[in-house]
Automatic annotation (TrEMBL), chain A:
<feature type="transmembrane region" description="Helical">
    <location>
        <begin position="36"/>
        <end position="55"/>
    </location>
</feature>
<comment type="similarity">
    <text>Belongs to the ABC-2 integral membrane protein family.</text>
</comment>
<feature type="transmembrane region" description="Helical">
    <location>
        <begin position="152"/>
        <end position="174"/>
    </location>
</feature>
<feature type="transmembrane region" description="Helical">
    <location>
        <begin position="114"/>
        <end position="140"/>
    </location>
</feature>
<feature type="domain" description="ABC transmembrane type-2">
    <location>
        <begin position="35"/>
        <end position="257"/>
    </location>
</feature>
<dbReference type="Pfam" id="PF01061">
    <property type="entry name" value="ABC2_membrane"/>
</dbReference>
<dbReference type="InterPro" id="IPR013525">
    <property type="entry name" value="ABC2_TM"/>
</dbReference>
<dbReference type="InterPro" id="IPR051784">
    <property type="entry name" value="Nod_factor_ABC_transporter"/>
</dbReference>
<keyword id="KW-1003">Cell membrane</keyword>
Automatic annotation (TrEMBL), chain B:
<dbReference type="InterPro" id="IPR003593">
    <property type="entry name" value="AAA+_ATPase"/>
</dbReference>
<dbReference type="GO" id="GO:0005524">
    <property type="term" value="F:ATP binding"/>
</dbReference>
<dbReference type="InterPro" id="IPR027417">
    <property type="entry name" value="P-loop_NTPase"/>
</dbReference>
<keyword id="KW-0046">Antibiotic resistance</keyword>
<feature type="domain" description="ABC transporter">
    <location>
        <begin position="5"/>
        <end position="229"/>
    </location>
</feature>
<feature type="compositionally biased region" description="Low complexity">
    <location>
        <begin position="293"/>
        <end position="307"/>
    </location>
</feature>
<keyword id="KW-0547">Nucleotide-binding</keyword>
<dbReference type="Pfam" id="PF00005">
    <property type="entry name" value="ABC_tran"/>
</dbReference>
<dbReference type="InterPro" id="IPR017871">
    <property type="entry name" value="ABC_transporter-like_CS"/>
</dbReference>
Length: 259, 314
């Protein structure tokens, strides 16, 4: 055992050591019991594989290959699936079982535990994007240059934040089953109505009119703008507003946290 | 000696229900205090205050001189909760190492504590799949790994067999002798008397007794005699050694510390006495003796402490 890594003279601040342990626990939880996230990762990848092999090489309305625009829309779908559900459900499970209370009476601030739930979900969100990108390469070849792709990944992961806050807000007050049910019930219609599965111009008029009120729509538009160079300031502002509202909701739910 | 837990004038209400009513108590370093009371007495609320889960609505709570609502104060605190809710995905060693780091200790502190509570051989197992007794030892290891000055044990031996109980209390006694203050909650009179240096009896949010086990048991009945009898309650109360008399349907319950003396006289008074039973006195009778207050409303499961139920047929 080396004193450098684990000794009391550890160069890492105590808060960071706790965060490290909590993130490791969170990653282990997902690795050792992958069924919880199985569908969150598998669904977007399978859908993407199906649609990309059918339409990937056709040009989309924007002139880009459909596989490229689908990277943005299915990327949004996949990343938001993971980031909305995983931290919220994990917190709700720990709350229901009493495990969150163990953390709360420990000497480590509870905020670290919750931050760790969010951080340990990020690799899985990234895994979805990588899997989709891999499939896209296979069926349509390279449709994006590396810089554009990296910008897209960055936008998707950062754009997951308001959804994570929303998931946590529900997870702070509802049981784990109820959290998953409520979030899916809200999320899946949002996915369809934001044009993440099928292009919006295939949708009925009232859905097209509804889309601008949905945060998933704005994240998808912001992601598409990385490809097309379109002006997406309005989408960015809409996402910032969503983040602010989600943060207020999560803060309120946190103050009502019963552990 | 240093007070590692000080609770002064603590009031706590949930809506119209008063859970704690001006409770004062202390736990000193190197002392084991049992908080004894039936369900609903306010034990959980008191533990919530001491762990910082609840804010005192009035009064003061200090752990090692600090406010347990502050994370830094809780470095001095080790807690074994009633339900730990171990995640299914983590091993024993991972749990105890995590607890060490959260308590500000190196992860390597886990090894000696696993040995101390005797679960070194379980360290690679998933905690969620262990038996109740093994899980309780994992919980104890997690509480001890931070080297707590105050150890809070909330109903720690519920569901443990006798061997596990003994091992549990041996570990606790060693920590107490090394200077830790211990507060345990229980509804079992015998357990409180056997392991604690002082017993604080909590009933309906009030401290109704605080004494050494010897001082307390001297005031408590250790047997209850139950029978159908023609003798009036008022007469039974005058018999020497009778501490209290209650009726339950057509049966009479007599609490006493001297069942032989009472029975000798009672059988002389009533030759038709039937359905005689002599039982170990439970918490119910103890509270009755301490408060003179029938607790039929608090008749909870698990209060019967009798491993030693004696049946005598007349």
């Amino acid at each position: 055992m080396t004193a450098i890594e684990t000794g009391p003279t550890s160069p890492l601040a105590p808060g960071l050591r706790v965060l490290g342990v909590e993130v490791a626990d969170g990653v282990r939880a997902i690795l050792r019991e992958p069924t919880a996230l199985f569908f969150s990762v598998l669904f977007p990848v399978m859908f993407f594989a199906l649609f990309a092999s059918l339409f990937g090489n056709q040009p989309s309305a924007s002139g880009l290959p459909t596989a490229a625009t689908m990277l943005a829309t299915f990327g949004t779908f996949g990343v938001v699936s993971v980031m909305l559900l995983s931290p919220g459900v994990a917190v709700a499970e720990d709350r229901t079982s009493g495990w969150l209370r163990v953390k709360k009476v420990s000497a480590a601030p509870i905020g670290t535990t919750i931050a760790a739930k969010v951080i340990s979900a990020l690799p899985y969100a990234l895994a979805v994007v990588l899997a989709i990108s891999g499939v896209s390469l296979l069926v349509a070849g390279p449709v994006l240059d590396l810089g554009t792709w990296l910008r897209l990944v960055g936008v998707l992961l950062l754009g997951g934040l308001p959804f994570t806050l929303l998931g946590l807000a529900v997870g702070f007050v509802a049981s784990s089953n109820a959290t998953a049910a409520v979030l899916n019930a809200v999320y899946l219609p949002m996915v369809v109505a934001s044009g993440l599965w099928f292009p919006l111009d295939m949708m009925p008029g009232f859905v097209q009119a509804l889309a601008p009120f949905l945060p998933t729509y704005h994240l998808a538009q912001l992601a598409l703008a990385q490809l097309t160079g379109a002006d997406a300031l309005g989408n960015l502002l809409a996402l910032l507003l969503t983040t602010a509202i989600s943060a207020v909701l999560a803060g309120w739910a946190y103050r009502n946290l019963r552990v | 000696m240093i007070d590692v837990l000080q609770i002064a004038g603590a009031h706590h209400r949930y809506g119209a229900l008063t859970a704690l009513d001006s409770v004062d108590m202390t736990v000193r370093a190197g002392e084991c205090v049992a908080l004894l009371g039936p369900n609903g007495a306010g034990k959980t609320t008191l533990v919530g205050l001491a762990t910082g889960l609840l804010a005192p609505q009035s009064g003061q709570v200090r752990v090692c001189g600090g406010d347990p609502r502050r994370a830094a104060t809780r470095r001095h605190l080790g807690v074994v909760q009633q339900s730990m809710g171990f995640p299914r995905t983590l091993t024993v060693a991972e749990l105890v190492r995590g607890a060490a780091v959260r308590a500000g200790r190196p992860a390597t502190a886990a090894g000696p504590v696993l040995a101390e509570v005797g679960i070194t051989d379980l360290q690679r197992r998933r905690a969620g799949k262990l038996s109740g007794g093994q899980q309780q030892r994992v919980a104890l290891a997690m509480a001890l790994v931070g080297d707590p000055t105050l150890l809070l044990l909330d109903e720690p031996t519920v569901g443990l067999d006798i061997t596990s109980r003994r091992a549990f209390w041996r570990t606790i006694a060693a920590r107490r002798d090394a200077g830790a203050g211990i507060l345990l909650t229980t509804h079992i009179v015998e357990e409180a008397a056997a392991v604690a240096d002082r017993v604080v009896v909590l009933h309906r949010g009030h401290v109704v007794a605080a004494d050494t086990p010897a001082g307390l048991t001297a005031r408590l009945p250790d047997r209850t005699i139950v029978a159908r009898t023609g003798v009036a309650d008022s007469v039974l109360r005058t018999l020497p050694g009778v501490l209290s008399v209650t009726t339950d349907g057509d049966r009479v319950q007599v609490a006493t510390a001297a069942p032989e003396d009472v029975l000798r006289r009672w059988l002389v008074l009533d030759e038709q006495l039937t359905d005689l039973r002599v039982e170990g006195a439970g918490l119910e009778q103890a509270l009755l003796a301490l408060t003179g207050d029938a607790t039929s409303g608090d008749n909870t499961t698990g209060n019967n402490t009798t491993g030693d139920k004696v049946e005598v047929r007349a």
